[in-house]
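Action item from last meeting closed. Structure (104 res):
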């Protein structure tokens, strides 16, 4: 039995649609994981992950929502979102490094 985990960000009215979007991107990302990342200053094109979706994908990896818990993958997602300008992802990546999660 999997224990419920608290989600570390505020859940608003759009949280279910955010989760659904992140889940779709999570499923797509597994098939694109071997491709190199594009220049983050260029807007994503069709089939690429936006910074917000990459952030939520990191949350899913960090807390094991819909997948196994994996701190390294979470940190990678947060870093990618942070490079694209997502400020909350930058904070989460910094906190993970501060507490030594995903860096070993």
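Sequence:
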């Amino acid at each position: 039995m999997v224990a419920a985990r608290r989600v570390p960000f505020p859940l608003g009215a759009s949280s279910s649609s955010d989760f659904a979007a992140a889940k779709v991107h999570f499923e797509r990302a597994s098939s694109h994981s071997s491709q190199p990342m594009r220049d983050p200053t260029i807007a994503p094109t069709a089939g690429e992950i936006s910074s917000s979706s990459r952030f939520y994908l990191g949350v899913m990896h960090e807390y094991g929502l819909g997948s196994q818990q994996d701190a390294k993958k979470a940190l990678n997602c947060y870093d990618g979102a942070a490079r694209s300008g997502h400020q909350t992802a930058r904070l989460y990546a910094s906190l993970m490094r501060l507490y030594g999660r995903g860096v070993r």
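Note appended to the action item: The mean pLDDT is 75.
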